[in-house]
Design brief:
Order of helices and strands: EEHEHHHH
Largest sheet: 3 strands, antiparallel
Distance between the termini: 59 Å
Number of strands: 3
Strand order of the largest sheet: 2-1-3
Amino acid sequence: MDKLYYIVCEEKGATLFEGKFQGRTRGAAIKFLKAQIGRQSLAGVVFTVTEIPVPIIREIVGAIMKGEPIAAPTAVSPAASVQQPAPEAKVVRFDAFEKPEAPANGDVRWAEIRSFYRECRSPKKTAERFCVSVNTIKARVRREGW
């Protein structure tokens, strides 16, 4: 069954291609994109190939043709049958440029990591315990001479 893909390709802020492709695989959509922009490789361009499920498209089009409002699907849980007051909805917005809060990797945290490493002498166990890369632990051991 063919799938519908939405493709956007940009280079240095300029849109090279934006459109739809109907095909069997994502690979076919990428080949189509290469042919459309006239390149053998997509190196140096930013692109996205998003699959749009055809049954959802048919449902949306059907609702539009009937003039019905389109509502997002909701999951029904067993507890939903019990009447409970609805909590006030909190609006959560996604900001692509907002940096997530990183764990504290300051001097205090590295002192804890260093003391744990000195006890167990295992970079792997230390990395798992403190959610740090094994290679980061090994680099600190070499650099600081633990």
